[in-house]
Design goal:
505 residues; Arc Repressor Mutant, subunit A; Aspartate Aminotransferase, domain 2; Aspartate Aminotransferase, domain 1; four-stranded antiparallel β-sheet; 13% strand; disordered N terminus
Length: 505
């Protein structure tokens, strides 16, 4: 028969509950943490406690040694073993007052800085956790080669070099900078060395860093109108004064920008696939923008967010290859080509500024874990990235075609979709007088995401429309999503548009 539990004060041991040394250690530790053994209290000698509990003295000695090593008790010759004045866990927690003191407020309540208020007031869609048609910026995540990626990450995580475990290489691991430089030179026509590549935690982090390092607070900066709301946020965070510059069928209107703000210090532009209208800036206008930047001493931040997904022909060469004076900073990321949670992107900057960007990264912390960087380099060098892009170009072309057919069938004559030969999303214009904000809210209630285009305009007449993403929507879900969206759009048509639609019936 097992011996009954033996009790000493608040301590007990059960012969059937595992090693007695571990039981005694746990019981004494619990008594210390709960206050049943007060700080400074002297414990029995190991010989006396062993006799009282009916265990060998070595069992008690081992338990005491463990408690001493972890700081729960102290042992001094001539003074015995006593409960420590402060348990180890107390060093990890702030001391809390027993009663919350009454604090009288003096002065106004706390507020953000003026730049902080401007930043949080900048609209930003999403994020949407649950996948829905037609979220923008969402790639076909179900088609990503997760098994390959997992294998590469695991391989790098198992045997990371010592250099990858410290604070070195703030501008990026050399192996990834080399891989990105090689990719950009071949696929995007960006002539750069690895030293010019700055690895950042996503495109937004790179844009934020560029705005703060290339312009001063109070400087004016051109913003595409309509354009990317993340650029507005980066301008606000850097204290820049945004100057909305209209976009036409050839992209950013450079002549209009020069008229509005000839002294601008920085420009954010999406020339290869304008966000959100989808137009491409022709060579003549690209050269005009670069020439103005050279004369004005301004910086052009070329946001190359999804130009890899070009269905017709090769992707267009980036603007960075047109700027011999180095006034174009090339910005890109893996969020659309791989997945957003990766939080990895790059800047290509003049070599003379690369050291400054690296120091700034040490201060801001916009860095990517070294193991992820190493796996990314493998993904590029081993050809997995190029193979994935080839598959996605075919897939996205098919999904756009499916979306255009569904929109023509359900909303033909009511809404005007604008096809593109690049990307994962497209604009759909609504009749004049439509309230695209109301349509967007009603669509969301119908479990469809339809971003209002008017919210992407800043300084000119806002044209109503919707911005629909199709990259992350399986083809089987496109028809159902358009059917639900069409019902919402027709329910919100302006009266004159309803009359015209009825007249055609």
């Amino acid at each position: 028969m097992p011996r009954p539990a033996l009790v000493l004060g608040t301590l007990s041991l059960d012969a059937a509950a595992g090693p007695k040394q571990r039981q005694l250690y746990a019981a004494l530790r619990d008594a210390v943490l709960t206050g049943r053994l007060a700080p400074g209290a002297r414990l029995p000698s190991t010989r006396a406690l062993a006799a009282e509990l009916g265990v060998g003295r070595n069992t008690v000695v081992a338990a005491f040694e463990q408690l001493v090593a972890e700081g729960y008790v102290t042992a001094r010759i001539g003074d015995g073993t006593r409960v420590a004045r402060l348990a180890p866990e107390a060093h990890l927690e702030a001391r809390r007052p027993a009663v919350r003191p009454a604090v009288r407020r003096v002065g106004p309540p706390p507020t953000l800085s003026s730049r902080g208020r401007a930043l949080v007031a900048t609209p930003r869609p999403g994020p949407w956790v649950e996948p829905r048609a037609f979220q923008t910026g969402r790639p076909a995540l179900e088609q990503f080669p997760h098994a390959v990626w997992g294998r590469l990450v695991a391989r790098r995580a198992r045997r990371p070099p010592v250099s990858a475990l410290g604070y070195s290489h703030a501008a990026g691991q050399p192996v990834l900078r080399e891989a990105i430089a090689a990719y950009l030179g071949g696929a995007r026509g960006v002539p750069c060395t690895p030293a010019q590549v700055i690895v950042v935690a996503g495109a937004q982090a790179g844009l934020d860093l560029a705005c703060r390092l290339l312009a001063d607070a109070g400087d004016r900066a051109w913003l595409e109108d309509p354009g990317y709301t993340g650029a507005r946020g980066a301008f606000s965070a850097a204290g820049l004064r945004a100057v909305p510059v209209p976009v036409d069928d050839d992209g950013l209107d450079v002549a209009a920008g020069i008229r509005l703000a000839p002294d601008a210090r920085l420009v954010h532009v999406t020339p290869s696939h304008q966000f959100p209208l989808g137009v491409t800036m022709p060579l003549a206008r690209r050269l005009a923008l670069v020439e103005w930047a050279e004369r004005a001493g301004a910086w052009v931040v070329e946001d190359d967010y999804d130009s890899e997904f070009r269905y017709a022909g090769r992707p267009l060469a980036a603007m960075a290859g047109l700027a011999p004076g180095g006034r174009v900073v090339h910005l890109g990321s893996f969020s659309k080509t791989m997945f957003a949670a990766l939080r990895a992107g790059w800047l290509v900057v003049p070599e003379a500024l690369a050291g400054g960007f690296e120091v700034a990264l040490r201060h801001t912390g916009h860095t990517v874990p070294a193991v992820v960087q190493a796996a990314l380099a493998d993904f590029l060098v081993e050809g997995h990235f190029a193979a994935h892009l080839r598959r996605m170009r075919v897939l996205y072309a098919a999904r756009q075609a499916r979306l255009l057919r569904a929109l023509a069938r359900r909303l033909g004559g009511v809404a005007q979709a604008v096809p593109a030969d690049t990307g994962m999303q497209l604009p759909v214009w609504l009749p004049d007088g439509s309230d695209d904000l109301a349509v967007s809210r009603a669509a969301f209630a119908a479990r469809v995401v339809a971003q209002p285009l008017s919210a992407l305009f800043v300084g000119r007449t806002r044209r109503p429309g919707l911005f629909l993403g199709y990259g992350g929507v399986p083809e089987r879900d496109i028809d159902d999503g358009v059917a639900r969206l069409a019902g919402v759009v027709r329910a919100h048509l302006p009266a004159r548009s309803v009359a015209r639609a009825q007249g055609r019936c």
